[in-house]
Input
Amino acid sequence: MFNLIIAFPEQVSEAIGIAKRSKIKLSLPKIRNIVITGLGGSAIGGDILRSYSAGQIGIPILVNRSYTLPRFVTHNSLVVVSSYSGGTEETISAYAMARKKGAQILVISSGGKIGETAAKAHHNWIRIPGGLPPRAALGYSFFTLLAGFQKVGLLKSKPVETEETISLLKQLSEEYSDYEKNPFPLRLAEQLMNMLPIVYSSTERFDAVNLRWRGQMEENAKTVAYGNFFPEMNHNEIVGYSTLKDLLSRFLVIYLLDEGDHPRVAARFSLVKEIIRPYCSNIIEVRSQGKSLLARMFSLIHLGDWTSYYLAIKKNVDPTPVSNIDTLKKNLSEMKQ
Output
């Protein structure tokens, strides 16, 4: 896992090259909505694209985590089928439904049953390298999608943003992999020991980054993690910081902050801190780095990856295997559908 995380910037560059070389034919005037269907590490790339492109694209984007597709999907929809392994049963089912509905289809996969179907049906297929844990293949699941959308004109190409993001990732990867150069992710991991991570961020742009942090804590560090978004949690969850004080004292709250947060949301972060501080163990503020939105998003994502890795090491657990997921998949495969 150490080698996979430290090599993430190179994976990003490779993913962009793969997308640029791929043949993608879409009828853009017919597209009224975009549905990205996938699960887990194969879906998070879609979440990040939805957040990143919110102010740039004029049609709705939905990330679908289900065996079925929304009823509004028709021949005027673009369905992105994202499955790193190509064998995710929920995504296989949703793919079949997309074909029945006559939707335009773009597949992102390393192969498997989904790859076989895409090849036989002559669907658009961005074929990515296999053999990685899906969560460690975010470069392939997000940047192939981003570059693919830019290639066909769904999104405007922003080479300066991309170059800044890769450059910043290289810098951070070098620093975070050597805790003597930058001990922050290790120190954060040490504070998370025996604590329940609670991740808060703004809804705009950073909801997917928030979700990535929680997923990495759960899969890499084998610890349950929770989170919510501002301003929504101000209207419900904040009231929960009242009783169960023994439990709340094991909460370590992480604020994911960005210079682009709405001014009123930024004010809420400050005010909420004073309300919940007496109850939780600690509140740690983490700020994004970089100029462009893409760089700022991935600066936080990369920090979360390293923090989850160091937390796994501190807990003396191997961050790579996900035995509970493997057990569930095995048991499901033995059941009649």
